[in-house]
Write a structure and sequence with these properties.
Elements (H helix, E strand, L loop, with lengths): L8 H14 L8 E6 L2 E8 L2 H13 L5 E4 L2 E2 L9 H14 L8 E6 L2 E8 L2 H11 L7 E4 L2 E2 L6 H15 L1 H4 L2 E6 L2 E8 L2 H12 L6 E8 L4
């Protein structure tokens, strides 16, 4: 019998800090780390939204970490402060330059550095691509993605089968541990993966399946599988 890898909170704390130091996108001195019963809480303040996400990803990469509470605040330094108008223009430019995004179908609203994306696109992956296109813009403090999917509907059985086949091609090791349901274009995926990278690979596969309108991630990271 294989038992799950269980680490003491103190061990997880030290390894998360080391992972933050290793990631060149992050100034680890800006990020506070606490661990209680395996749950990692990140605090402090960073200079950009992309750095906040990078810290979250770094914590998830540590084996044994299953849950992360990201309480990091984004405080843009004076040299990078942008007006909401400046940010709105930068958002439009970034969307226009991204060939994967139908920018004419997307509207943005900027308020105190927070960007809200609205509109309609044919696929779930385009919704994700639109958000990714603006993450690294100076002055952005957060993103609220309200883009809706209006692509053609696909039979739920066919959708589930296409997702399962894609996972078998790309993530065969993980596929046997996963359970997929599809209702009206909403795909819910449950089960276990070994690492944060595996989880991202599985979600990336599901997000690109034709007919997906929403992805509900109920995966659990379990290194013992």
């Amino acid at each position: 019998m294989i038992y799950p890898i269980v680490k003491r909170d103190s061990e997880l704390h030290e390894q998360v800090i080391q992972e933050l130091k290793w990631d060149t996108r992050i100034d680890e001195a800006d990020v506070g780390v606490s661990v209680h019963e395996g749950v990692v809480t990140l605090s402090g303040s960073v200079r950009s939204y992309s750095e906040r996400l990078a810290a979250q990803e770094a914590a998830h990469r540590v084996t044994g970490v299953r849950d992360v509470a990201n309480e990091i605040q984004v405080r843009v330094p004076g040299s990078l402060v942008r007006t909401d108008e400046d940010i709105a223009r930068a958002v439009r430019s970034a969307l226009e330059w991204n060939v994967l995004v139908p920018e004419e179908a997307i509207e943005s609203t900027v308020s105190s550095g927070w960007v809200t994306l609205e509109g309609t696109v044919p696929t779930w992956s385009q919704r994700i691509d639109a958000e990714s296109a603006i993450r690294n813009l100076p002055g952005v403090k957060g993103i609220l993605n309200k883009i809706q999917i209006v692509g053609p509907r696909v039979d739920a059985t066919s959708l589930r089968r296409s997702v399962e086949e894609a996972l078998e091609r790309r993530a065969e090791r993980e596929a046997k541990h996963l359970h997929i349901t599809a209702v009206g274009g909403t795909v819910t995926i449950t089960g276990k993966v070994r690492t944060w990278a595996d989880l991202q690979a599985v979600l990336g596969t599901v997000e690109h399946a034709p007919g997906v309108r929403e992805v509900k991630d109920e995966l659990v990271i379990d290194p013992s599988d």
